[in-house]
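Reviewer 2 asked us to include a model.

Predict the structure of this chain.
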Amino acid sequence: MQSKFLKITLMMGLALTLLLGLSVIPQLAIPAPTGPHAVGRTIFKWVDTYRPEVLTEAPNDFREVIATVWYPAKAGTGTKSPYFPGLSAVSKALAESGEVEWWEVLGLRFIRSQNLLEAELAEEPAPYPVFILSPGNGTNVEFYSSLASEIASHGYIVVGLNHPYDVAAVELSNGEVAPYNKDQWSLEPRAHQVYTANRIQIRTADVLFTLDQLEGLNTDPDQIFSGRIDLGSVAVGGHSLGGITASEACKADSRFRACINFDGLQRGGPFSMEETAIPPTQPFLFITKESEMHPMLIERFESIVEGYWVVIGGAAHDSFTDGPRLQPSIFPLADQADRILGLISEYTLAFLDGTLKGQPDDLLSRSAHGEEVSVRVYPSN
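Predicted model (structure tokens):
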């Protein structure tokens, strides 16, 4: 009897192990983007010699911006890209950041990506509009690969920024690693608010510096992007603090034609750290989990020339990243994370197509997905 019970227990254990194994396998691959283009990937490390790095003690340290660029690629060129290029250089700092668990760092090397490293740029149609993406606090832009790849596959150049000391870890141009500044969490609340406001200013300067660098790439005959970047069609977006950064960048530079905030809320709502701040004058998309806001903030939405407040039902703050998509699930089926990120991508593309390509989509004028998505258009009359 005991032997029979042991056999049944072992069989159940093996079955459960197999089921869990099958459930993890699909989660170790980023789904292929749905656009007509393959997606290339490259990295730039730019040094701004006009800005000293304020978070290091070395007097000759200058601010760097590390940009991962996703772009429409010619199929069959380049090499298969890892999900997190250069992982070995930053893995220790990632684990020490407190933002990524050690076992998550270990798992990153096994995630499969559809991107093509250093692929040739697709020839048609070009030039391509640009979307600059700023990540959330403590979050590397690599963790937005699904969203960035999806947008790039539909004919956009997506420039994702790793802001040194604001992301979990990033390798600088000299080979050193800039770790996440965890000391900020020892500050008193008021002091931390001031610190965050200062970091938003630095991030905003990073974004404006990036736009200048893109102008250089567009005129450099040795770059694959030479003459292929539509600098008259540039949008900026970001998640969390990156969303506030995007709003501030739009207000600081009229070269940006549109602005997206992914679930970033501060005292000034999705527009700013400051309660009294006004929204950008450019078309503005706030795509979020938040279905309620202070009436004062809604009044500010009414002052926008073209504004959208899109609420994704069931979303959480990290739904805008790959994090939930990479979590193992008990059943090997498409889960809620895929559905939510798919909706986020769909509404993002509708906004970008309308504002940068002149191809408006009535998706943003209605709730096409029933109770899953709520769309509010401003001004409302």
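The chain has a mean pLDDT of 89. The first helix runs from residue 2 to 24. We have added this to the supplementary material.
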